[in-house]
Amino acid sequence: MDFSELKSVCGGCTIRELCLPAGLSDEEVLLLDQHMAHRQVVKKGDSLYRTGDAFRSLFAVSTGFFKTSILHEDGRAQVTGFQMAGEILGLDAISTDQHICDAVALEDSAVCEITFDRFEELGQLMSNLQHRFNKTLSREIVRDQGVMLLLGSMRSEERLAAFLVNLAKRFSMRKQSGSELVLRMTREDIGSYLGLKLETVSRILSRFHDQQLLDVKGRNVRILDQQGLNKLIEGS
Amino acid sequence: MDFSELKSVCGGCTIRELCLPAGLSDEEVLLLDQHMAHRQVVKKGDSLYRTGDAFRSLFAVSTGFFKTSILHEDGRAQVTGFQMAGEILGLDAISTDQHICDAVALEDSAVCEITFDRFEELGQLMSNLQHRFNKTLSREIVRDQGVMLLLGSMRSEERLAAFLVNLAKRFSMRKQSGSELVLRMTREDIGSYLGLKLETVSRILSRFHDQQLLDVKGRNVRILDQQGLNKLIEGS
DNA sequence: CTTGTTTTTTGATCCATATCAAAATATAGA
DNA sequence: TCTATATTTTGATATGGATCAAAAAACAAG
Fold it and tell me: How far apart are CA B110 and CA B113, in angstroms?
């Protein structure tokens, strides 16, 4: 971790509506801004926090891309999510005051930090912020249950289609192309997240390519047939 | 839904420390009590709420046993959890103000209801309550990620062992036997939760029986070798 | 650019779990 | 109680994805 530190400025942030300040008035954002710790750079491959670290702060991804993963005692790891701009890291640690996963930057990234004690104080001051934060936590629960559905009852092709469609949606909400994806993670990361082996991920990407659903060139994926992918997810 | 209604009384509740009032002072519990809506009976097989229902209230399981399940459009269903006394139902609905799963009683049960608007007001009054509730939401995130680990990287025997050990732990926290389990759910429910088919669940239970890990008689399961199960989970 | 390392692709084979089927058992309703 | 229905067990077989293996491609460091 580390590094260059700049004052966070939610007020001027382009993704403010996708992040903690969502739905707050300008005055409220100002107050939040005053309590944000600082902005940190996290280099590709570095971790923002590791399993077992004491929990002090939440982090909002400002730019870049992260993965979170749990490590099972026997070495097995499970990727539990990928986070992009505006998404919050550290929510799982509130429960025990310890981080229960590793958060690793998959490209050079920046995060905005806010100490959780401060944040809870702010929540008492701004019922609006607290209300939104309740929703943020709940949204994470919904997301996780979506992954449970995926892992528990979808076949490999459906899982991968759902994964790609989800990524595309999140990119396009951020005004980035919703069809030209640059995958920041390895096939192994994708496989871990989807409960598949990396070879299976690779094979299915090739198959989707053959079926003209995608144009795959390494980590550059272009979605050619969004409809086709959606049909797959429904379990045709 | 519904049914006989009694005033909730957290103050005198035996599982108060496992439920929303956990960690509150007597005065605070009294205040919470005043805002609880009422106690409701839910008969076996009935649902407390269904997917799509408007979200108004959280429910704390008072007695009994529930399952929650998401239904995929094409009919497939995924059981996302089993809830027992003290556990909170409805957390996922905060995010969208709509329930995104069905909550069905697996035995005659009772729940304590609190409208979420009221609850949020209370949270503003009692920072302690809000703090605990943040932890409750976070704990649900941790639980869900545990299920992701289970579905994503454990083999069928490990999943079932983890499931049984988890159930046993939760029963024993409630002063019930941690070795004599009465499964309230069908093999199919267990299978859905664990991403397995009901036949697989049945076969593994039989295998555990043969290996003297369990004594299985229909839905009555006695854990004979807790250690053995734990060893399985570690992935021997 | 070159070299070593990591990641990705593709093929051949295997196996854990699904599927199909049918009997046995348990549960609920009359 | 008896009867109908739902659940569970067990067997036989099939299959989706894992595993093992090796070449190809991409990437990072000097």
Answer: 10
